[in-house]
Amino acid sequence: MITFHHLIATAKSDRAPDVHIEYDRILQRHESSTLQLVPLAFIAGGGLLTSLVLAPYTMPIIQALEDPLLVLFLM
Amino acid sequence: MDIAWSTLILASSTTSEAWEMDDAERLEIEQAQRGDPVAFQRISERYKRAITQQLWRYERNQEILHELTQDVFMQVYTSLPSYRFEAPLLFWLRKIASRVGYRYWKRQASRMKRTVPLHEELVNNTLVHSEIREIEMADLVQRILGQLSPSRRMVITLYYLEDCSLRDIARRMDWSETYVKVQLYRARKQLKALLDKLGIRDFS
Description:
The complex is a heterodimer of chains A (75) and B (204).
Chain A lengths: L3 H10 L9 H44 L1 H7 L1
Chain B lengths: L1 H10 L11 H11 L3 H20 L5 H18 L9 H23 L6 H7 L9 H12 L4 H12 L4 H8 L3 H22 L6
């Protein structure tokens, strides 16, 4: 009859097969994932720039929304 | 016998305290952190065996094992600049490997739906009661543990197969020790019920 301890001892001593690491694939994936960040950085930068340019127009609206009386008046 | 065995496991815990790194290895890691592919390759080849041995306990299909190993070393390459020499490199690599394995199990668990209960399948195949080879026995362990949820399976694997203490498991998985204790208690209870059905004795 098999015991749990026997199973665990066998599983622990079981040797893994040899595995070959594909270093070229690692480097390629790393480079492509870095390149994918470039458009994201452009989008984020563009968004930030747009919000800065539009700030003089958007700030009064935001401030108005924070004032409950003015919001009530607008409604 | 169980007490002696558990004591042995706790005594051989794999904590990362009180360690010193060889100067040559530190230099090599620093080179790899700066993006030197040759240094990275040397480090990877040094630890590859230990990591594949660890991953072999998570998946026994050779093709998937290959992919998991690739994933681990891909993550190592990306995250190596964040390694701060606060623990041995192998401890840090094992942490990455455990997380890759855990994510893999979670993906598997969401896809897999078992139709025939394991104990019926095994009893029908007379796998448990006949003379079985060691490789089949190692497969059997994986199939039994595969019945547990990914978190319980991880706790049992780290505790029994990788000889980690509760503290080590908590550190490796970034879980609290209380969570690990609860998972271990529940996993043992579930495992005991499974082993009883399969007629496997000596579990406590």
